[in-house]
Amino acid sequence: MGNEMHIFIKMLVVFILILIASRSVGRLCTYVGQPRVLGEMLAGVILGPTLFGAVFPGLYANLFDADIKNILYMFSHLGLALYMFLVGIEVNFKKYDKKFYRNSAKLSLSGFLVPFVAGIALAFILKDAFFQGDNFLHFALFIAIAVSMTAFPMLARILQEKNMMKTKIGGITLLSASVIDVLGWLSLAAVIALVETNSLKGGGVTFLGTIIFVIVLFKVCKPLLERIFVSVVETGKMHQGLLALILVLVLSAAAFTDYIGVYSVFGGFMMGLIMPKNKVFEQQVRSKLEDIVVVFLVPIFFTYSGINTQFTTLNVSLLIMFLIILIFSSISKYASCLITMRAAGFGWRESSGVGSLMNARGLMELIVLNVGLTYNIISQDLFSLMVWMAIITTAMALPAYHFSEKFKFKKALPSNTITIK
C-alpha cells in the first residue's frame, strides 16, 4: 500500500508539472503570435530529457520512472482516442457547395500524394542511417505517411484563434486537411496491419477487418445513433446517460481497432465521423468533453512524446539528416498545394497562403510518429528528428501565411469566389 501511495503522489506531481508547463508555454506562444497548441507541444519536449532531464537529471529520473511512463502512456492514449473522436465530429463533408468541394478534393489529393511520393524518396535517403527493421517497405510507407500529414485539428485551432474560420482560405484549407487526415489514417491502418502480421495475407485480413468495421459503423451504427441522439438536437441538452453511451462507444471502438491490429485512435476518429452532423449536438458533446481532453489529457500525450524525444548522440550527420527531412517535408507539401491552387485559378497570394497553412502538422504528426515508435518502425533518433520537424513546420505555418499575404507577386489572377452553405 505504501508503494502504491508513493506512485500515486508522484503521478499527481507529474500531472501538476504538465499542466503548469503546458499552460505557461502555451500562453507565451500566444504572445508571439503562435497558437497555444504549439506551446503545449514545446512544453512536452521541455519536460523531457532535452531540457528538464538535462538540467535536473536526478529529479527527472525519479519522477519519470517506468511506473510513471506507463501511466502517461495509458492516459495519453485515452486522451488521443477522445481527442480524435472530437476531431471526427468536426469533419462534415456535406456543408460545402460542389465547386468548393471539387477544389478541395484536388487540393487534398495533391497535398497528400505528392508528399507521399517525396516521403518514399526520403526513406531511401534515410535508409542507411535509420532503417533498423526487416522490411524496408514498412519503413518507406511509414515515412511517406508521416511526410504527408496535415493537422486538421491544429489548423482548426489556428484559424479559430486568428478569426479565419469564415474566410474562403480557411474553409478550403480545413476541408482539404480533414480529407488528408482521413487518407492518412486509412493508410496508417493498412501499414500497421502489415507490420502486425508481417505478411500480405495477414495484413489483408486486418485491413479487411478494418473495412468491415467502417462499413458497420456507417451502415448500422450511424442510423441508430441519429435516432438515439435526436432528443439532443430537439431539446439542446445532453443528459449524463447519453454522455456515458458516447464514452462507451468511443472506448469500445478504440479497444476493437487496437484488437484487430489498428491503432486505437483510429476507432475514436471513426466513431466521431458517424455522429450526427448537427451544430447543437456538436456543441453539447464539445461542452461536455473538450475542456478536460484539451487542457488535461492532450498535454499528457505531448509530455509522453517529449520524454521519448532524445538523442543518443547529437552530431553533424544528424543535423544534416534533420535538414533533409525538413526540406523534403516542407517543400513537397507547400509546392503541391501552391501549384494546385494556382491551377484552379486562385491568385498567387492565396495559393501560397494555403500551401503555408497546409504545412502545419502538429498533433497529427506526433500521433503518427508515436505509432511508428510503438511498433519499432522507426528508431529513437529518427523519432526525435521527426518530432522537431513537426514542431518547426507548425511554427512556420502562420508566419509563412502572413508573408504570403504581404508579398507582392507581379501578376495575380482574380480570386475564385467560394461559397459555404
Automatic annotation (TrEMBL):
GO terms for molecular function: antiporter activity. The chain crosses the membrane at residues 6-25, 37-59, 71-93, 105-126, 138-159, 171-195, 207-225, 237-254, 319-341, 385-403. It is a multi-pass membrane protein. The keyword Nucleotide-binding does not apply. GO terms for biological process: proton transmembrane transport. Residues 24-395 form the Cation/H+ exchanger transmembrane domain. It is found in: Membrane. The keyword Translocase does not apply. It comes from the Bacteria. Keywords: Ion transport, Membrane, Transmembrane, Transmembrane helix, Transport. One of its GO terms (cellular component) is membrane. It holds the Pfam family Na_H_Exchanger. PANTHER family: CATION/H + ANTIPORTER, K(+)_H(+) ANTIPORTER 1. This is Cation/H+ exchanger transmembrane domain-containing protein.
